[in-house]
Every structure is written in C-alpha cells, then in structure tokens.
Amino acid sequence: MGRTHRVRSRIRKRRAESGADSDSDIFNELHRYLGRAGWRNESRLSVRTFQSTGRGLCSKQNLHPNDLLIRVPFHCLISLKTLEHDPDFNALFNSVENFPQKELSFQGLLAFYVIFHQHRAQSQHQTYMTTIPEFFTNPFFCAKQELHFLPDAILEKIVAQNQEIKAFYELLSKEFTSAVCECCSSPLFPNIFGLDQLKWAYFAVNSRCVYVDPKVVVGWVPNSYFLRLIKDEPKLALAPFIDLLNHSDSANTISQITSNEPFQYELYTQRGYSRYEQVFINYGELPNSKLLVEYGFYIPGNKHDFFEMALTDIELLMKSRNVVGHRNKFKFIRDHNLDQQMFIHRDEGPSHNLVVALYLLLVEESVFPNVLSQVAFGSSEHFESLIHDEIRTLVQLKLEEYEKFLKGLEDFTSRTESGEVVLGYLKECISYLSKFLCNY
C-alpha cells in the first residue's frame, strides 16, 4: 500500500510542478500543449464528467455520421517513432552492451518510457503525463481479501498479467543493474523504476493507447533500434486527448493515418451525436470479461457479451450427477481445442464447442478416438436437444457460484475501487445467467 501511495504521490507532484491544480487546469494545459504542436480542435471537443462513465468527451456541436471526430498530428502520439527519436531514452539503452533482442513486449517498452518521462523534471511529455489517471480499476488492483471473491476465469487472467509484468521487470532490472538517473543520480532500479511503478504504467499504456498500423510506423523508422528488441509488432501508441474517449458497444469509429505529410491520426464517427452528448470510441466487439480485465470496466447490457465456460465447470456438473469421465475423452477434447470457445450467449444459446464437449462427456458411450472424432466433427445439429437439461444445470451451477462470490464481496466492507467495479460486474453476470435460464 505504501508503494502504491508513493506512485500516486509522484503523479500529484508532477501535476503540482506543471501548475495544474485541478482537472480543468490540467486539460486546459493539454489543449495549449497540443495547440502549440499544430492541433486544431475542429470538432469542438470538450472534457466533461458523465454520470455513467466519469471523465469523457463531448462536442459543442452536432456530429453526423462520417464526420471527423478528431484529427491529431501524429508526432503528438507516443509511438515507436517517438522512442526512436528520443536521444535520452536511446542513450539509456546504449549504455547496455548486447541488450537481449526480441524479448521485450512493445506494451512493456511503452510503459518503461512512461516511467522514464514521468520522473524527468524537464520532460517534453510532462503535460501529457499529468493527464494519466493516478490509479486504475482493473481487478489486478483488488486487495488480497477481495481476490477470494473473484471467479477463476478472472483470477487466471490476473495471474498471467502479473507474471508478464514481473518477467519484464526482472529483465530490465537485470540489464540496467548499475544504471543511474542522469537527472538525480539515483539508481534506476529499484529507486525510480520500481515494480509498482511498472504495474501502474503497464495498465496506463493498456488503457490509454490506440491502434496504429505497424507497417506505417515501421516504414518511418525502418532501421529502428527498438524494433530489434521487441518480440511483437509496434501497433500501439499513447494518444493525448484521444485517450479521453470512452468505449461503447454501440459506437462505430474508423481510424486512419493520413498518407501525406504532415501525418495526422484521424478518427471518424459512423453514428451521429447531439451537442454535449458524450461521444465514444469502439475498441472492438469485446465481452464484459475482456473489458473488465484489460480496461477496468464493464458495460451493462453489453450487446457483445457472452459467458465463458471451462472444462472444470463441466467436471463439477459431472460430479453433481455422479458421472465419471474417461481420460480419453478429456484428452480428445483438449487435443482438438474443443475446450476453447465454450460459452453461452443470451440470445443464441450455447456455442458449438460447449455442446460437443457436453455431449462427448455426458452422452457418448464410446471412448475410442476414431469414434469420438466422427461424433465431434460430424453432424451435431441434434446434440443440443439431447443435452438441454445438462446445459441448464451447468448454467444454474454457475449462477449459484457467482451469487456466492457476490455475497462474499458485499459482506467485505473495505472494498477498493477495483472491488466496487468487480461487484458490479458480478451483478451483471448474475443478471446475464438468469436471463439465459429464462429464455432457454
């Protein structure tokens, strides 16, 4: 908790140093900063606080389908090109001989860059750094006591995130073991680049970035030093002001980078908005579980939502019915990835893989792979009617499990903000499962 407090204190200090005493001051300064860089607020966007989402953007004019939502000079975004043309950041890496190649994630590298500039007193990105939230509401930041009331599917993703962040931190701390900060002479690790700072920056990047075409960006810096270090494509860019646009499942936006200089990043809306109505961006057709883990929120009634199931859920169903599954069947299901994409949809019913897995484990008598293959990949239209009751029982067991999680989290009175978001997510899941049972 102390380390988290220090992260937030550092951000508050940066805001104070920038002369920004309130959110209004911070975003007015961001306007001026972008204006000096060539940005023109053509669609008259304004920062507002909305009841449903908190901070977001609206326009002071009506917007129509296909209207420009925002156009920002590309050099205002923090991308691979930014890192490549930053002499101080390059010098830090040049101080290390034979830095490992193809081992860094680009998201991690951007997070490292954020911490690097958050610390520097005279950073050219200081104005933008003050606009990044002090904390995030992803389940990753739940208190330890709250983790007891999180579903396994969410916990598994948190563990994976934690492993990725720790591995990245260990790699950097090993390579920069003797490095010191040129502006304060403190050791970089762990004094400046602590693990908690990296956790914060990792989610800052994850929630503040836009997608950019990596081929375009790489084309600008074809001999990039950092391109040799990263193991994935540089398809992310931190986007000042654009990152204030919230996601909606009903939004439809098109992004592009202009083909001629001066290069611009543009967003166009495919739906209209009345003036002062919140305008949205769309991250993609994402279910609430993805939105929660990656971005720290969920959407009530999300039209892209579905509810995932796991083999362990089917095993619990089998146990409740005193059914023993043969290992050949489980092996067949895993070997053919039938345990992937197992879900229920409120309107469309159970997925194909869920139906097949349930049929193989609860109805099919043969355990021989050739027979299982004929069953699994032959006509399966009649399977669902044969396991209708099993599907209902599976969903009912899941509903009871989530109700227990909800009760436990409600009884825990010292909830964090992340815990509050998870609480709402559990209620949304319970509502989703209940509606499925009513309709199925």
From TrEMBL:
Residue stretches making up the SET domain: 43-284
Gene3D superfamilies attached to this UniProt entry: set domain protein methyltransferase, domain 1
A Pfam cross-reference name: SET
Domain of life: Eukaryota
GO MF annotations in UniProt: protein-lysine N-methyltransferase activity
CDD domains: SET_SETD4
PANTHER family documented for this protein: SET DOMAIN-CONTAINING PROTEIN 4, UNCHARACTERIZED PUTATIVE METHYLTRANSFERASE
Protein name, as recorded: SET domain-containing protein
Biological source species: Hermetia illucens
Lineage summary: Eukaryota, Metazoa, Ecdysozoa, Arthropoda, Hexapoda
